[in-house]
Specification:
By secondary structure, the protein is mostly helical. It contains six helices and two strands. It has two domains: about 120 residues, no CATH class; about 40 residues. Helices cover about 70% and strands about 5% of the residues.
């Protein structure tokens, strides 16, 4: 059983990794909804001078200072809602120090994420193999992929305003990638002979 889990997990990871590569390089779906900033140098200069700590920034930022009275919190919330409505609003993930872009490190991490996911899904397939058919195991992979994509992708659209076309492209690429991986994983994950 362990051997099938490892084999299925590795097969899934490799296929998802390859499909993701195809989607990003051949179809450019990985870039849907992503735009550059006009006058980037001026924006970067402002970020350098105004934000001095790396982090995840949400703007406009609500006042979350402790010790405020209910009246102060109500006034702060009203001011926040007015600023949010006036715009702009969004997020910035900022590394203040900068760094060399290490493509091999990022691509290795991406494969390791796929491998971990593949092994977890392979375990589910293997422990349910005796009670499932090939089609059901494939369906399990697809449902897991859609569930993972919706759990983590849709909230980015809902709370942070990620573009709808970006979200749809993410959902499609992950679902199709794991479908392809699932074709192999469901085949490898068979019931263990008694």
């Amino acid at each position: 059983m362990f051997k099938r889990i490892v084999l299925s997990g590795i097969a899934g990871a490799v296929l998802v990794f390859l499909m993701s590569t195809v989607f990003h390089l051949a179809t450019r779906l990985g870039e849907v909804g992503v735009k550059g900033i006009a006058n980037e140098d001026a924006v970067m200069a402002t970020l350098r001078s105004e934000i001095h700590e790396s982090g995840f920034y949400y703007f406009p930022g609500p006042n979350m200072a402790p010790g405020r009275t209910k009246e102060q919190m109500d006034a702060d919330n009203a001011a926040y809602m007015a600023k949010y409505k006036a715009g702009p609003n969004g997020i910035i993930i900022l590394n203040t120090g900068g760094e060399d872009f290490n493509f091999p490190k990022h691509i290795l991490n991406q494969f390791l994420f796929s491998l971990l996911s593949g092994l977890l899904i392979a375990w589910i397939l293997q422990v349910t193999a005796a009670a499932t058919t090939y089609g059901t195991r494939l369906g399990i992979v697809i449902v897991i992929a859609i569930t993972g994509a919706t759990i983590y992708t849709l909230p980015y659209w809902n709370w942070y305003g990620f573009p709808g076309n970006y979200i749809v492209a993410e959902l499609v690429t992950w679902t199709v990638s794991w479908f392809v991986a699932g074709l192999a994983m469901a085949k490898i994950s068979k019931p263990v002979a008694a």
